[in-house]
Amino acid sequence: MSTDPSSSSSQTTDASSPSTWDVIKSINLDDMKNIGQVPCARNSLLYGMGSGFGAGVLRFAYQGRVLSASNYAVAAFCSVSIISWEVCRSQMKQRAAARVPTTVLPPSSSSSSDASSQQ
Fold first, then answer.
1. How many whole angstroms separate alpha carbon 101 and alpha carbon 76?
2. 74-110 per-position pLDDT tens digit
């Protein structure tokens, strides 16, 4: 009875993380209706759409082939959307890390006694 260490590690990985099909099944229509409320999603998708349209039009103007232009449009959409999403998210993390947490301290007892003695 031999044990293969690679097979035991793959079983633990599969059990702890959902499969791609599970993730796809978990997406519903309400998620798509509220995509504009997700931070960075709206701008990333708009940048991707604009660049995809531009790349497709330029490729079609130079080559004259629809299939080639479509491939360029999809590639530009995906790459620009992903890059702008990642840049936006990293900027959000940097801003959150730069914020200094503010703590409100209760008034000290000496200042409250001074205020009561002045009245």
1. 40
2. 999 999 999 999 999 999 999 888 886 667 777 777 6
Six-digit token string for 95:
């801003």
pLDDT of residue 6: 47
> Is the confidence at residue 67, as pLDDT, over 90?
yes
**What's 35-99 look like in SS3?**
HHHCCCHHHHHHHHHHHHHHHHHHHHHHHCCHHHHHHHHHHHHHHHHHHHHHHHHHHHHHHHHHC
The SS3 call for residue 105 is coil
Q: Which amino acid is at 119?
A: Q
Distance of alpha carbon 74 from alpha carbon 78, whole angstroms? 6
CA-to-CA distance for 7 and 9, rounded, in angstroms?
5
- Report the amino acid identity of residue 58: L
Say if CB 48 and CB 77 are below 8 A apart. Answer: yes
